[in-house]
Every structure is written in structure tokens, then in C-alpha cells.
Automatic annotation (TrEMBL):
UniProt superkingdom: Bacteria
Alphabetical list of Pfam families matching this protein: Epimerase_2
InterPro entries on file: UDP_GlcNAc_Epimerase_2_dom, WecB-like
Gene3D superfamilies, per database record: Glycogen Phosphorylase B
Keywords assigned by UniProt, alphabetized: Isomerase
GO molecular function: isomerase activity
Family: Belongs to the UDP-N-acetylglucosamine 2-epimerase family.
Alphabetical list of CDD domains matching this protein: GTB_UDP-GlcNAc_2-Epimerase
PANTHER family for this protein: UDP-N-ACETYLGLUCOSAMINE 2-EPIMERASE
Domain UDP-N-acetylglucosamine 2-epimerase: 30-358
Protein name per the record: UDP-N-acetyl glucosamine 2-epimerase
């Protein structure tokens, strides 16, 4: 059985790495599973893509659709047209998509319309916030998925409520955490550590890229100003996403303890996170990594598709009103942040379970 493994944007790469390694191992042990790695080209910079392939030992893609940047519709259309052309020329038996980015949705539609089965890794999670492109991507993908690989009981419930039969849901855990646990001993000190003379638990890591937070200048400015004002002077290390960088340039904010740096490769980024006093983010995946590493996490969003990171883990939703930042920082600095626990099956063996399931199809 030939499985297309689809990856397009930065948060996909840590999710596919362990799946590819598990398929390679299965192939060596005589399994009939074969894979073809398809990069859609949604993220194309070395810093957003190439570095992750290198560090996570992901093989060079068999195909690169080179879709590049564009509006949501342009990106979706380009990826669909190019993936369909590939499938018409060289079909696969199963398209395996991960996460919730535009590439996930676009490739699942292209495959399904050619009657190719679709497997979705990280299926069933929901923010119920349709203003986020990722929620639309999740809903559309799951509406045409054949095999649902899930990270949480909540995801299972969401799928069952939507009418998905039990036998198509495989609760396997979290492949992003496979990658985290496998690479934890390889985390690498980034240059900024020495440049800024950072100390363990003596700085905060920030990441912001959601359109709701970064696309309007005044919103981004208010959020950052409030963080700076309540940070008690400790360094704020801000690896800045290209989308945010474009808006940030116009804000004219500079501050002694606010340090903007280029997006970091995986091993360097997580070195910083593992030693930070806290992370302030609007990402989804980072809330899972901080939960597993026990690092306090403040999420600048009104909702999350990963409620277990709040209920069990170290994450707290602050919303997008900058006024919530002060009290949260006060709680952090007074040592009152919750310690958190680790969700079920986030144990580093998820990709193996996925391959076991695929082997039985
Ligand atoms: C995408 C995902 C989001 C994920 C994020 C992580 C969707 C809908 N969103 O958002 O879920 O959390 O990636 O990074 O798929 N750009 C570059 N270089 C690159 C890639 C992008 O400069 O390598 C620029 C683009 O030109 C664009 C902006 O960054 O202006 C946004 O990129 P895009 O892929 O549209 O979405 P993200 O905001 O990165």
C-alpha cells in the first residue's frame, strides 16, 4: 500500500517525522507499507521549513508542489490543482494528512475526489471558532476523512457527536510529542542564549502569529506593550514569524528587554522553551509542548482546540484583551502557576500505533 504523507507548513514537520521513521522501520521489517513524501511548499523558507527537515532527519520530499504564499483561496487552489495532477499521474492508495493547515484540507479534498482514502492525524479537535482558518480546515478535512487518528478523548467525543462510527476512530496519542520526547536530549543552545546572557527560568519566550492578534497594527502593539510593561524587566525572547514581522516593522516598538530574533529551528526553540520561566503564545502546538515539559504557558486566544492543555496541563487561556496579561504575569512571578500533568497516550509511541493500524487496513 502506497501512503502519501502530506506536509506543508511548519507545524506539520514535527508531526510527520515520527510517522516516516516508523514506516521506514516497518518497511525494514517486511511490511507492505510504502510512502511518498509530498511537500506542498506552503512554507518554503529555510527557517520555516528546511531547518526542520534537517534537524528532524526527515528525508528529502519525493515531490514538492511549490505552492508558495497567497490568500487562503489561492493557496488552497494551487495545492489542490497540483496535488490532483500528481495523483492523476501517479496515484497512491491512501493520503495521510496531519494537523489543520491549508495543505491538510486542500490535499484531503483532492485525494477524496479521486476516491482515494484519507487518514487524518490529529483529527477531531475543535475550537468551535469559525473565524480561524484552521477550524475550517479541521472541519472540512474531518468531514471527508476515512481513518481518524486522535490525540485526546475529547477529540473522540467530537467525532462521535458528528456521526463518525467508532471503528474509524483510532485514539493513538500525539505524534508532536513523539518528536519532542525523542529529541529532548538533543536540544541545542541557540546563539541568543549567550548573546543575551540568559539564565534558566530567567526569561520569557513569546510567539505570536494568529491573524486575530497580528494583522492589525494597534492590536499587536497593545499586546506587546502590555507584556513589556508587566515583565518586571526580564528578557522577552521573541522569535518572530514572517507574518508578524511584516506588521511589526511598522509599529515602532523598541524596548530594552524585548528581543526580536528570526524564527528558530526546532532543537534551538525547544531548548529555550524548556528553560523558560514561561511562554506567551497564540500557537496550538506549543501549548502541548509546554504541557509535556511542565512550563507555564499563557495563550493569547479566546478558545482552544486543545482543552486538555488547560484542564490538565500548564496552559491558561488569557483571551485577546491585553488587560488579562498583568494579572497572569503577577501569578507567574509569585510562583502560583499550576504544575500540570501529561495527557493520556502522549508517551512517545504514537507513530508506532498509527503504523500498526495502517498495517491492518
Ligand atoms: C500557517 C498555518 C497555521 C500555523 C502556522 C505556523 C494555515 C491556515 N495556517 O499560518 O495554522 O500555525 O502556519 O507557522 O495553514 N511566509 C514566509 N515564509 C514562509 C512561509 C510563509 O515569508 O516560509 C509568509 C507568507 O508569505 C505569508 C505569511 O508568512 O505572508 C503567512 O504564511 P501562511 O502560510 O499563509 O500562514 P501562516 O500564518 O504561516
Amino acid at each position: 500500500m502506497l501512503v502519501d504523507i502530506i506536509a506543508g507548513a511548519r507545524p506539520n514537520f514535527m508531526k510527520i517525522a515520527p510517522i516516516i521513521h516508523a514506516i521506514q522501520k516497518a518497511e525494514d521489517n517486511g511490511s507492505k507499507l510504502k510512502y511518498r513524501l509530498v511537500h506542498t511548499g506552503q512554507h518554503y523558507d529555510k527557517k520555516m521549513s528546511g531547518d526542520f527537515f534537517e534537524q528532524l532527519n526527515i528525508p528529502h520530499p519525493d515531490v514538492n508542489l511549490e505552492s508558495g504564499s497567497g490568500t487562503q483561496a489561492e493557496q488552497t487552489a494551487k495545492i489542490m490543482v497540483r496535488y490532483e495532477a500528481l495523483l492523476l499521474e501517479k496515484p497512491c492508495d491512501l493520503a495521510l494528512v496531519v494537523g489543520d493547515v491549508t495543505s491538510t484540507m486542500a490535499c484531503s479534498i483532492a485525494a477524496k475526489k479521486l476516491n482515494i482514502k484519507v487518514a487524518h492525524v490529529e483529527a477531531g479537535i475543535r475550537s468551535f471558532d469559525l473565524s480561524m482558518p484552521e477550524e475550517i480546515n479541521r472541519m472540512v478535512t474531518d468531514s471527508i476523512t476515512d481513518y481518524f487518528f486522535t490525540t485526546s478523548e475529547r477529540a473522540n467525543i467530537n467525532l462521535k457527536k458528528a456521526g463518525v462510527q467508532d471503528e474509524r476512530i483510532f485514539f493513538v496519542g500525539n505524534t508532536m510529542i513523539d518528536t519532542l520526547l525523542k529529541n529532548r536530549s538533543r536540544f541545542m543552545k541557540p546563539e541568543v542564549w549567550d548573546e543575551l546572557k540568559l539564565n534558566e527560568s530567567g526569561y520569557i519566550v513569546m510567539t505570536l502569529h494568529r491573524p486575530a492578534n497580528v494583522d492589525e497594527e494597534h492590536k499587536l502593539k497593545d499586546l506587546i506593550q502590555e507584556i513589556v510593561d508587566h515583565s518586571q524587566g526580564i528578557p522577552l525572547v521573541f522569535p518572530i514569524h514572517p507574518r508578524t514581522a511584516k506588521v511589526f516593522e511598522n509599529l515602532g516598538i523598541t524596548h530594552d528587554n524585548l528581543h526580536l530574533i528570526e524564527p528558530l529551528p526546532y532543537l534551538e526553540f525547544n531548548f529555550l522553551v524548556e528553560r523558560a520561566s514561561a511562554v506567551i503564545t497564540d500557537s496550538g502546538g506549543i501549548t502541548e509542548e509546554t504541557t509535556v515539559m511542565g512550563i507555564p504557558c499563557m495563550t493569547l486566544r479566546d478558545n482552544t482546540e486543545r482543552p486538555e492543555t488547560c484542564e490538565l496541563g500548564t496552559n491558561e487561556l488569557l483571551g485577546t484583551d491585553p488587560k488579562a496579561i498583568g494579572p497572569a504575569m503577577a501569578k507567574l512571578f509569585s510562583g502560583q502557576w499550576k504544575k500540570g500533568g501529561i495527557p493520556q497516550l502522549w508517551d512517545g509511541r504514537t507513530a508506532e500505533r498509527i503504523i500498526e493500524c495502517l498495517n491492518k487496513l
